Amino acid sequence: MSTLSTTLIDLPLFPLHTVLFPGGWLPLKVFEARYLDMARACLRDDAPFGVCLLKSGPEVAQDGAVSVPETIGCMARITECDTGEFGMLYLQAIGTQRFELLSYRVEGNGLLVGIAEPLPDDIPLEGEQALAQFGSCAEVLERIIDALKKSEPDKMPFREPFRLDDPSWVSNRLAELLPLDLRARQKLMEFPDVGARIDAVHHVLDRHGWL
Description:
alpha+beta; Archaeosine Trna-guanine Transglycosylase, Chain: A, domain 4; globular; about 30% strand; LON domain-like fold; 5 helices
C-alpha cells in the first residue's frame, strides 16, 4: 500500500462473496498467484489489503471475466499465515477500517488495485432509544457467546476481547451472524452511523423474536 495524499491510498483488493466488518475475522485459503504475491507483499511491508463484496464477476480468475467490487469495503491485516501444499497459504486476517473505493485498475497479474479513501470511525451512539436498543442487542450477543462457549467453542466466529460495551463492535458482530443476504449485510457495513446500524440490527432481532 502506498500513500497518494493525506487521505487517499493505493490499496490491493481481494473481492469476495463475503462482507468484512471492522473487527471481523476472515480466514482465507490463497492459491492464485496474484493473491499469493499480494499476501507476501502485505506480510513483508506490514500493510493492509482491501476486502470488497463482489458486485459481479468471479472470485477465481476466469478467461474474459471481470470482477466488479462494491465501492465500500473494509481493510484487513494478516495476523496469521501458514503454508500448505503446493505453496498454498492459509491466512487469518482481521478487518480494521472501512474505505471508499474511488477507482481501480487491473495489474498485469490480474490483481485489482484501488485508489481508496479511508472512512472515519462510526458516528457515536446518542439518544435514550438508541442506548436502550444497544443494551438489548448486547444482551442477545452475550447470550450467543455464552451458548457457543458451552456447545461449540471451536466454532466461535470471533475472538476475545468481547467488547460488549462497544456499540460498533456489538452491531458489527451481530450483522455478521444474522441470517441476512449479502446485499443487506453490505448495507449494514456501509452505515457511517452506529445508531443506524444498531436500529437495523435491533429490528431484525425483534422480527425474529430474539429479543
